[in-house]
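Researcher: Please translate sequence to structure tokens.
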Amino acid sequence: IVAGDLIFDPNRITFMTLHFDVADHLRENREAFKLTNIYGNPARERFLTIYIKRQCSSIRNSFRELLRDSVIGDDTSTLSDFIYDSSNRFRRAGANSDLGHATRARLAILRRFAYENPSLLDRAEEEEESPTTPSTDENGEDPPTGEPAKKKHKRGQGGRTVKGEDFWSKVEMWFEARQKQWGDSWATEGWISYINHTLELDTNRYQRPVVQNPFMIDVIIPEAYRAHGSSTAAAATLQNALGSMDDILRLV
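Model: Translation complete:
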């Protein structure tokens, strides 16, 4: 939950060190998260650190896949839909498609990066599985004997991705380069121009298809069935029998 909330932060442009921020947040709010029995115990802290790193890696891979599917393939989505879907998946406060300009701008930038770098989209980072829950003696110390838990690794699609060559490492490099070019604030001229262009590109690429109503063609009524002035009374009688348009609309 914490990792998802932090990765969704509209000001976050670093992703590979997410686990440090999660660890700091949990430590500062240990009482709220009921983790007071973890800190002060080296074995439990070590286990928690490994678990946090694994969860952050999983969150990054999930976010990458969501970005990929939103811009490439048969199920692409508009930016507003992506904001709703990603906030529903990662944001602690839940789904919302209207989260302000900063969120919209950053997610549009990430979508553009994904679209313009398709070769990176399947470069999953290696996920490190958490070891077996550590055993401790009554004093909370590490056991004196026994082998350390072995770590297993999950390989990304197409084999192991070299460190630094995965999607999010490249995203960080891109942001670092643009920071040097345009500065640290979204409000600089360079960032404003890039964001405006990015939003326009996104809108043009992923517009919702216009659904045409096939029944909008006028119905041709044969002349013989048209109501004439001489049959006003008959038409009125027929209208009373069928009901008014108001009656029909009530059924819709």
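Researcher: Any highlights?
Model: The first helix runs from residue 2 to 7.
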